[in-house]
Design brief:
The complex is a heterodimer of chains A (544) and B (86). Chain A has 544 residues and is mainly α. Chain A has helices spanning 2-23, 33-39, 46-57, 60-73, 76-107, 112-119, 124-155, 162-210, 215-223, 238-243, 249-253, 255-261, 269-294, 302-315, 323-333, 338-346, 349-363, 367-383, 387-391, 393-417, 422-446, 452-475, 511-528, 536-541, and strands at 484-490, 493-499, 502-505. The termini of chain A are far apart. Chain B has helices at residues 2-32, 52-75, 79-83. Classes of the chains: A mainly alpha (544), B mainly alpha (86).
């Protein structure tokens, strides 16, 4: 129970930081009430900018999802998500983030949709982009609720049930976003990032001691034919591996990242963020993946032994299991809480408690998404359709706060109704959808001939593709590990297949064709609609 | 005048060369992610416990940081700060 109390203490501290930030308004002189609440008055300093931006990108999925995925799939997890993100995300911040910042300062934008509307001289198409972005962001927020429920249940040994853990985490996040706005969110994110950056190194040392060193564990994993492939990538095809490099493109298109880029006080704050981002990725992901892998030898811990037994039953050759039993075994074999079980099993109680709080820090990274959605709603819908002009900036901020509450309730309800692997939800819906939307930003900033109709085509295609994948996966049951069910074949070639981890298109993740077709649509539709190109006066304002 | 134009052309071609160089390096770094040479092997275990495939990608991540340092140093868009109006 002590770890649970420490985690509750941590939650109280986080709430306190958010409330305090809500009262502080440093450097806000001259900025409007809305700009101060939603963008911290564009006054975020370099350290908070780096740590908060990094923390915003790291969700439950970075620690819990990564170690859970590595527990089942081995070292491939790091190459799939960490090293590709370490390249694509800082490159995107360098090329796109800096330009968003400059345009935001120059023209007073608070959301990417405001920029799209102005750049492409459109109104309702911007509303369509807002709607698709909003719907795609909700799963990302749901992840935090699920992670909160899983973490509190694990650290309290089941005393705090999943539903209550999710509710507590949701309420705390809602509290500091509601009162603290962007400043509170950035400060909390900074505190959380420091906590979970220090988590990895401490956890590795403690667990290594507990297991009597890692060398024996690795040799033992290599000696068994069942676990040796976890130390290589032989179970994953190079095409599948390659397609994962498209997923970090989503980070460039996530509105909370775009909006956060607008909060920096100076352009120079981006420098350290671009350089240090890969090292932060290394510090978080290497321990998470390694510990997830090594958990396969922690058979002296009963909860982990139970997971391994469930996995063995699922993979037994010739086993015919009813769908309910299969789903039950999948849930039992899920490794999302494996890192917590390792810490609990090998760390002294006081340290396990602190580490539990650090894991909770990573889990609670949905604050920025909630605030971003609130900012988008108030700026892209409420203000755009005359609400701000009619009721004033104070009502606009209050509307944003009410939206925060509504969003929290919706995300919590979905999280309780859809218990699924954190990693799966994140990668299959939100990430793929946003990656497909990334040509919007690239075209808006770098291609003068892009038009609003190209932007609409990209948006509609992204939404339709995500819906198509979701429907496919809901109607065609997932086969067992390693098997594939053909869904569409042309000329004897399997084009679309349903596999255990989701769907593949010609052996690639759906995110690859989704993104490439998006880029193609932007090019073709914009080329076909030259009459819709913005006026030269508009284009001059977008010279970056 | 002719000399001035020649100087301008020279600067433009140097600028294009630098852009081509950095694009090539970026493509190379991206390609290095697809390390098929360590695909099916776990050995050697670096430091006695880290499979070579995992070590490679950890080192690759650190290398990216160096690459970003070069990008920031050589291609920083400082004109954006001046044009931001604040």
């Amino acid at each position: 129970m002590i770890p649970a109390l420490v985690v509750f203490g941590y939650l109280a501290v986080v709430l306190g930081i958010g409330l305090f930030a809500g009262r502080a308004r440093p450097g806000a002189a001259g900025t409007g009430e809305a700009e101060d609440y939603f963008l911290a008055g564009r006054t975020i300093g370099p350290a908070v900018f780096l740590l908060s931006l990094f923390g915003t990108n790291m969700t439950a999925f970075s620690i819990l999802g990564a170690s859970g995925h590595a527990f089942a799939n081995g070292i491939v997890t790091y190459g799939l998500m960490a090293s590709s993100s370490a390249l694509v995300i800082p490159l995107g911040i360098f090329l796109i983030g800096t330009r968003l910042w400059a345009l935001g300062k120059r023209h007073g934008f608070m959301t990417p949709v405001q920029m799209f509307r102005d750049r492409w001289e459109c109104g309702h198409i911007g509303t369509v982009i807002f709607a698709v972005q909003a719907v795609l962001l909700v799963p990302y927020i749901v992840i935090a609720v699920m992670g909160g429920g899983t973490t509190l249940r694990a650290v309290s040994n089941g005393l705090v049930p999943y539903w209550l853990g999710g509710a507590v985490v949701s309420l705390v996040i809602m509290g500091y976003v509601f009162f603290g706005g962007m400043r509170g969110t950035a400060w909390v994110n900074t505190f959380q990032t420091v906590l979970f950056l220090s988590f990895g190194a401490i956890a590795v040392v403690v667990i290594a001691r507990g297991m009597g060193g890692f060398s024996n564990a690795m040799e033992s994993l290599l000696a068994s034919p069942g676990t040796a492939p976890l130390l290589t990538r032989e179970r994953v095809s190079p095409l599948y591996f390659l397609s994962y490099t498209f997923i970090p493109l989503s980070s460039l298109a996530f509105p909370h990242i775009g909006i956060f880029c607008l909060t920096a006080k100076r352009l120079s704050h981006f420098r350290k963020t671009v350089i240090l981002y890969p090292l932060c990725m290394l510090a978080i992901w290497l321990p998470s993946v390694f510990l997830g892998l090594v958990a396969n030898k922690a058979v002296d811990l009963p909860p982990i032994r139970a997971k391994l037994e469930a996995r063995a039953t699922l993979a037994a050759p010739g086993a015919v299991l009813p769908p309910e039993r299969r789903a039950e075994l999948r849930a039992a074999a899920s490794g999302d809480d494996v890192i917590l079980k390792l810490v609990e099993g090998y760390a002294p109680l006081w340290l396990a408690s602190l580490l539990g709080a650090a894991v909770m820090a990573a889990v609670m990274a949905s604050d920025s998404q909630i605030l971003a959605l609130s900012t988008m709603f108030t700026e892209d819908v409420f203000a755009f359709y005359g609400g701000a002009a009619r009721f004033g900036p104070h009502v606009q901020v209050q509307t944003g706060r009410i939206f925060v509450i509504l969003l929290t309730v919706v995300a919590y309800s979905i999280a309780m109704a859809a218990p699924q692997s954190i990693f799966d939800i994140a990668s299959q819906y939100a990430f793929a959808g946003y990656a497909a939307l990334s040509p919007l930003l690239v075209a808006a900033l770098f291609w003068k001939k892009s038009t609003k109709w190209g932007a609409l085509a990209v948006t509609v295609w992204s939404a339709a593709a995500v819906a198509g994948v979701a429907v496919l996966q809901a109607t065609v049951p997932a086969p067992g590990p390693g098997a594939a069910v053909g869904v569409l074949s042309l000329g004897g070639v399997e084009v679309i297949s349903r596999v255990a981890s989701g769907t593949t298109v010609l052996g690639l993740l759906p995110v690859v064709p989704m993104t490439l077709i998006s880029a193609l649509l932007m090019f073709v539709v914009s080329s076909l609609t030259p009459f819709a190109r913005p006026a030269p006066a508009t284009m001059i304002r977008y010279k970056v | 005048m002719a000399r001035w134009l020649a100087m301008g052309a020279w600067h433009r071609s140097i600028s294009s060369l630098r852009a081509a160089l950095v694009t090539s390096i970026t493509v190379l770094v991206y390609a290095l992610h697809q390390d098929f040479w360590f695909w099916r092997t776990a050995r050697p275990l670096v430091f006695g416990f880290l499979p070579i495939g995992l070590f490679y990608h950890a080192a690759y991540t650190a290398l990216i940081s160096l690459f970003m340092w070069y990008l920031v140093r050589a291609f920083w868009p400082s004109h954006l700060e001046e044009s931001s109006g604040k």
